[in-house]
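Structure representation:
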Amino acid sequence: MVSLLPTNTLFSSSSFTRLPPSSYSPPLPSWPTKTLPTPSSARRRSISPRAVLQWNRKPQLAGETPRVVVITSGKGGVGKTTTTANIGLSLARLGFSVVAIDADVGLRNLDLLLGLENRVNYTAVEVLNGDCRLDQALVRDKRWPSLELLCISKPRYKLPLSFGSKAITWLVDALRSRTDGHPDFVLIDCPAGIDAGFITAIAPADEAVLVTTPDITALRDADRVTGLLECDGIRDIKMIVNRVRTDLIRGEDMMSVLDVQEMLGLPLLGVIPEDAEVIKSTNRGLPLVLNNPPALAGLAFEQAAWRLVEQDSMTAVMVEEEPKKRGFFSFFGG
């Protein structure tokens, strides 16, 4: 069961509690909650498109701006670019200005997921070479003008050896000093691996979002990346667990989110369930959070963006259904 609750509610980010059936009685919220046996059944429900922005207040932006956040994982294919696109657009819909930087050289995909691939005329390399201005390389999303995209290079383009940590740090500093105002968030889509591209992408970041899936190969890479981020001075690291299937967790065929959090020891920013709508939205170039009616994974990305704004986290709690049956996991904001 997944409960979508607002932040600053119920539990602290570091508490784990095993609750007996009789003592577990969560407060009834005034906003919609979802109990999801399968994603497909949830999508058949009739929900207002504005349900994705369901709170009566705008989240309070914590920390100094611009907040530079690198979205990384180590292992490829866990959903870094999907996370960047959906959280970036969610932040824009919440009223914050966002610049998303695709730092994957030669294999960029963020423009495809945002549906902006035909509008990228200049890249960061051309800005550094003096061929164009920074504002010319920034591609503004027409649907939400507060979201802008900056690609490091064009596809199949060989990056010059001179491009490295200093170059991307200069770009972020240039965004900070823009005459028309700096963005609230700079999201950096980090390439897979821990080679030079990874080192370059994390250089200007002050905080990190680690995307992983509940499988042992992704967790091993995530643990290694966590150590590298801390060595680079990034202490504010939160985790998103992607492609979670509660049916496999109940059957003990997949590690639970609580297991993942205990293994990595990181605050939990969000839990994204497995959802076929992710593939459909990717192929359409339409971020999942714009789906109408909202998809379950899209709602989860909206929740994660809300927590990111307020530097909040959520907690996984084991709940025992009956003494003779295995427990299941619920996820709460707080």
Notes: DSSP finds twelve helices and eleven strands in the chain. Confidence is low (pLDDT under 50) at residues 1-54, 323-329. The CA atoms of residues 141 and 262 lie 38 Å apart. The two ends are 17 Å apart (CA to CA).
